[in-house]
Amino acid sequence: MFHPTAARISQVASDSRASAADLAKAIERDPLLSARLLKLSNGPRYGGRRQVSNLKDAITVLGFRTTRDLAIAMYIGGKAHNAGPEAQEIWRHSLRVGAGMRLIARYVRGCDASQAMVAGLLHDVGALVMCILDPAYASMAGRFADGSPQVMQAERMIFGVTHDQLGAALLRRWELPECFVLVAGGHHNDHESPMNLVAQLAELMAEGRLDGLAEYAANEATQKLKLTERQLEITLEVLDEEAADIGKL
User: Fold this and answer.
1) With contact defined as beta carbons under 8 Å apart, do 103 and 239 qualify?
2) E strands, 99-184, in order
3) Which of 75, 141, 156, 179 is surrounded by the fewest CB atoms within 10 Å?
4) CA–CA dist 122, 70 (Å, integer)
5) Neighbour tally for 81: CB within 10 Å
6) How far apart are CA 34 and CA 126, in angstroms?
7) How far apart are CA 28 and CA 200, in angstroms?
8) Do residues 140 and 154 touch, judged by C-beta distance below 8 A?
9) Spatial CB neighbours of 140, under 8 Å, sequence gap ≥ 6
10) Per-residue pLDDT for the chain (249 aa), expressed as one digit of tens each?
């Protein structure tokens, strides 16, 4: 699944001797990806007064590691769009989780909002790969909730691993940040790193599992992150808009 262009981006970004120009050359192999990163670097999250017109400047605006992480997430999103409806639904869910994580992380000390967003976009990469590899699995997974016992049992039978285990292994192999690995491998368990707590709460919001602000405020992850009801309210109010905005990238 990992396209040579995306693999090259990861390889270059992991080289301590690589420059912004080296990373730009790797990204330029994919014109669509290049256009998306330029669009992002000129957008409201990162853009300044000066128009960014080339990849080298875009990398300067976004940051070296952020460019790598976003490039890989965008590539995987494009792969999902070209797959079946089940993979597309997983990606739509991932957009909502990524949006929720970005919004929540703004209120959590030590959590980088941009990094949290990419962690959310990649948290179900294992499920995406499974959908692409096995259409029968994709059809089955679409009938049950993400992380349900039925899905996890089927994953073990078909692939020998669950989607969270596969996702964590893939992200580690691609040498992405360890917090991405922890979120991919721990979003269905009780791992209590700040980023995982953010992911667990974003999952609840993305799926609308809780009923009203009071239930979100009483949630264990909310309590451990020390979020206020006003912060939760703002996040819930803009979640759909934020997810749609990220999805346009």
Assistant:
1) yes
2) none
3) 156
4) 10
5) 11
6) 25
7) 35
8) yes
9) 151, 154
10) 555 666 777 778 777 788 888 888 888 888 878 888 888 888 777 666 668 888 888 888 888 888 888 888 887 888 787 778 888 888 999 999 999 999 999 999 989 888 899 899 999 999 888 888 887 887 777 666 666 777 888 889 889 999 999 999 988 887 788 889 999 998 766 667 899 999 999 999 998 888 889 999 999 999 999 999 999 999 999 999 988 887 776
Give yes or no for a contact between 126 and 184, defined as CB atoms under 8 angstroms apart. yes
Tokens of 48: 């300044």
- Within 13 Å, how many C-alpha atoms sit on residue 159's CB side? 24
Phi, psi of 216 (to 5 degrees): -65, -40
Alpha carbon 128 to its chain's center: 12
- At 77, which amino acid appears? G
The single-letter code of the amino acid at 165 is Q
Residues 6+ apart with CB under 8 A from 205: 96, 100, 216, 235, 236, 239
Distance between CA atoms of residues 79 and 58, nearest Å? 23
From the CB of residue 214, how many other CB atoms can be counted at a distance below 10 Å? 11
* Rama region for 219: left / alpha / beta (φ>0; ψ in -120 to 50; rest): beta
Inter-helix orientation angle 178-186/113-122, to 10°: 50
CA–CA distance, 119 with 181 (Å, rounded to integer): 8
Q: Report how far residue 38's alpha carbon sits from residue 114's, in angstroms, rounded to the nearest whole number.
A: 16
Q: Taken in order 66, 71, 76, 77, is the CA torsion positive or negative? A: positive
Helix (H, G, I), strand (E, B) or coil at 234: helix
